[in-house]
Amino acid sequence: MTMTRGLRKFVLTAHVTFAVGWLGAVAGFLALAVAGLTSQDAQMVRAAYLAMELTARFVIVPLSFAPLLTGPVLSLGTPWGLFRHYWILAKLLITILSTIILLVHMQPISYMAGAAAETTLSSADLREPRIQLVVAAGAGLLALLVATALSVYKPRGLTPYGWRKQHEQRTVPPAVDAAT
Amino acid sequence: MSQTHTKPDRGSTYSTPRWVKVSAIIVIVLVLLFVILHLTGNSLGGPGGHTPSIEYWLQQP
User: Fold this and answer.
1) How many domains does chain B have?
2) Do B9 and A156 touch (CB under 8 A)?
3) How far apart are the first and last CA of chain A?
4) In chain A, how many domains are there?
5) Is B14 within the bounds of a domain?
């Protein structure tokens, strides 16, 4: 199943937009998490955690699910395939793991936003969960940067499945190949 | 040129690329480190995982 050139370009545009948008949103989230952790201004800390919850719920979560749809559609609609090359498989795993870790952290983010809305947080309050959010955002950003680099560099390497498929295609006689 | 990026890998015998092996080792080490930190209660979220740790800290005076 191969997509037409126009459809492939459309899905590719959507995929790049979602993936890069996700990366940018996580970078913004990390800036807010650092501000929430280090700022001495109580109003800044409150604003940071409230903004973090809104950003996570309405921007980062939707942007994390979108590439899970466009990525497989794009790879399955082109000769690259979804399970044939290690770099595509690695990107898929990074996307799935990042989405799961993000969903796990939604509850702590909501707790922090609730605490920030109800009380004035000093720099000593809820110290460990605040550090945890900075570390999680930093790790997420690093994982998404790796996924972006994989898309650009496309390191060589076929999976056993991809190698078998390639071997099968090469052993099919041209006449039969043309007929299928 | 860019053709090298779009051509599938060729070879008569199968072998896992070095970058895949190195990446797998790094991932396994990170996962083990994460699990050990959580089991020993030294994770950044405090004892008991994400949500309980937040509740734990919310209950502090």
Assistant:
1) 1
2) yes
3) 12
4) 1
5) no
B26 part of a folded domain? no
Separation of alpha carbons B51 and A52, rounded Å: 17
CA A72/CA A95 separation, integer angstroms? 11
Q: What is the ipTM of this complex?
A: 0.73
With respect to residue B23, please indicate whether it lies within any of the assigned structural domains. no
Gap from A156 CA to chain B (nearest CA, Å) = 7
Tell me the C-alpha to C-alpha distance, in Å, between residue B39 and each of A126, B31, B34.
Answer: 21, 12, 9
A90–B54 C-beta distance less than 8 A: no
pLDDT of chain A, 180 residues: tens digit per residue: 688 999 999 999 999 999 999 999 999 999 999 999 999 999 999 999 999 999 999 999 999 999 999 999 999 999 999 999 999 999 999 999 999 999 999 999 999 999 999 988 877 788 888 998 999 999 999 999 999 999 999 999 999 999 998 888 887 665 544 444
**Is A104 within 8 Å of chain B by CB?**
yes
Domain extent, residue B52, equals 34-61
The answer to whether the beta carbons of residues A42 and A121 sit under 8 Å apart is yes
Q: Which domain holds residue A50?
A: 5-179
> Does this model's pTM top 0.90?
no
Q: Is residue B57 part of a domain?
A: yes
